[in-house]
């Protein structure tokens, strides 16, 4: 393509209200424009990248045996009521009514729709397994869209759904998709990790997220420095190594602690380490009130706590709950607190002569000991792990790094098939629920994540597999020799199947160089009168910033070799 004929409106300055690198560069390079909060129009350059990534995804999905379909974005609300998710999904579900006041939603995901399709078509175990996928726009009413397409209200996603006769079949389908995802992200040249993850509102028994490692990531990847263990911070665990201190149990003591409602204030007031503190946090769900206990140097992991009670959400208790339980926010503790279920983290049970709230304003108990001074209903891992803890699998050291979730695979089991009565007849002619898995990749999110991982101060540094153009030609200076060589090279590369962008604009060299760096094609070839008179072309590799000269007369062969090396 010739740049003079393309709609690529680049910007010199960072746009206002663009906070992360990918958002800035996608706007500055002319890939997209904002229509509304969390809603973007993709321009030709951005659409080329989307097409490149979708082609990789489709090829690997097809190779894995999945078959492409296209499901409606507009979904009847009664289908979501049937699955039980119409209310459980929460306010992110975009709802609307038609002229007859029938309720619909715009699909954030398609478990209900695909299950409805298959339950009407699949009759026998002989029809299974099957795996159906689509690439489609999804909708989520984000409370605060931000970071461009990393968290938007409308986005492109690939979602696949497998149907099997049993758990063994699901395991095979799950592994096939897991392997396909690794091939997809490997081909894109991304640094990523597959980590154990929470199933969230999708549900199911097991899940892995694929995280692109980047500073802008809203998630945290916990990984071991010695083995393959990796998990989202929401689910990460650590080996409990703390031993109960060998000290005499002291008598429980009530003390005044004015203006000490936080752990930090309490540490200063009592001159004790956080490891001596028992932090008590009051939570509630629709069915019960829970007091979660963690050691003072940790935080309660609300995802782990929710999973413990098998609820989608568990919230901090409202103010009236404190009054109802005769306690005080900031001074709550498990000693003499009735009508509440007490869940203690494993490390809390190792505390000897600890400190906790006394359920009275500005008062705490000293020398608190679990089992003697209060009873625990359940001991469980409910803390958020910290960097430097011990790996639960090999004893190595846990480290943390930011990550951007770009894909997730789930073992759904029979969650949706049972709710929607999707069955098949087994070998004995008896109806059995379909065993399901689902597998998503954020198309637009992965593109943004690739930019977060591949950029510098001047612009994007595209991996070759995702680049809108592989080669960017920059003829500089006047003269027929430069113009003729540029046109010759442009035509020959096109005929060779190389995606090339020719900057044929009548612009200064500085403008052309800046736009080339901003757009980020892997190979930039500069054709200038001085180098051409020496029989050479100037080449710059965008990823490595390596510069070299190549023979002008043998340029095609050398360029093809460079492309092959860049793809590797």
Automatic annotation (TrEMBL):
Keywords: Aminoacyl-tRNA synthetase, ATP-binding, Cytoplasm, Ligase, Nucleotide-binding, Protein biosynthesis. GO terms for cellular component: cytosol. Residues 33-463 form the Aminoacyl-transfer RNA synthetases class-II family profile domain. Its EC number is 6.1.1.15. GO terms for biological process: prolyl-tRNA aminoacylation. It is found in: Cytoplasm. Pfam families: HGTP_anticodon (PF03129), tRNA-synt_2b (PF00587), tRNA_edit (PF04073). It catalyses: tRNA(Pro) + L-proline + ATP = L-prolyl-tRNA(Pro) + AMP + diphosphate. Gene3D superfamilies: Anticodon-binding domain, Bira Bifunctional Protein, Domain 2. PROSITE patterns: AA_TRNA_LIGASE_II. Its main location: cytoplasm. GO terms for molecular function: aminoacyl-tRNA deacylase activity; ATP binding; catalytic activity, acting on a protein; proline-tRNA ligase activity; transferase activity. Consists of three domains: the N-terminal catalytic domain, the editing domain and the C-terminal anticodon-binding domain. Homodimer. Catalyzes the attachment of proline to tRNA(Pro) in a two-step reaction: proline is first activated by ATP to form Pro-AMP and then transferred to the acceptor end of tRNA(Pro). As ProRS can inadvertently accommodate and process non-cognate amino acids such as alanine and cysteine, to avoid such errors it has two additional distinct editing activities against alanine. One activity is designated as 'pretransfer' editing and involves the tRNA(Pro)-independent hydrolysis of activated Ala-AMP. This is Proline--tRNA ligase.
